[in-house]
Amino acid sequence: MDEQPPLPVRRYLVAGLIAAAAISGLLLLVRPILFSFAPPLDDSNYNVAAAAEAAKGPLLVEIVLNESHAIPGEVHRDQRVGLTVVVAPVVVAPGAADAFTAVDAWSPTHDCPVTLGADRLVDCAGDTWTYGGVPIKNAQDPWLISFPASVSNGAVLVDFTHRIATGS
Q1: What's the mean per-residue pLDDT of the chain?
Q2: Are residues 104 and 65 part of one domain?
Q3: How does strand 80-89 pair with strand 115-116?
Q4: Sign of the CA dihedral 157, 161, 166, 168?
Q5: Which of 21, 26, 79, 130 could be 134's S-S partner, Cβ–Cβ 3.0 to 4.6 Å?
Q6: Containing domain of residue 20, as a range?
Q7: Where are the alpha helices (DSSP H) in the chain?
Q8: Contact at 8 Å (CB) between 107 and 113?
Q9: 53 pLDDT higher than 70
């Protein structure tokens, strides 16, 4: 014999299914509204590091950009564009907590990556820059490309769509 559940059980089952469908539909409507309050996730608002981590000292950070910006040192792999940047706390301004610099980790003089030295950035030929991208040995050398950086919600955000005019 094929027994069917009692009538009240069927009603609760149907009501539960209708409620689940209504909640799912409501979430699908509300979700875009919630995300509209968040900043855009593009290369003008790129989260490169936690501010607390970057405040400890300079970081060499490898990132994946959303699109190419013709920045020296970009690495193209399939549909992705990789870039390495140096994020460092600004130490020249006393009391300037949460102030950071972001520079391209690519040497403009020898077309090679720069690495973190003890107190400076160094390229493959020994040319050096401050963590802010200013040449140390030869003032005639070009500065490293610098990008606007800010802090929001404990993260260092960098705008890779704009370059900061430098002394070179």
Answers
A1: 84
A2: yes
A3: unpaired
A4: positive
A5: 130
A6: 1-38
A7: 7-35, 51-54
A8: yes
A9: yes
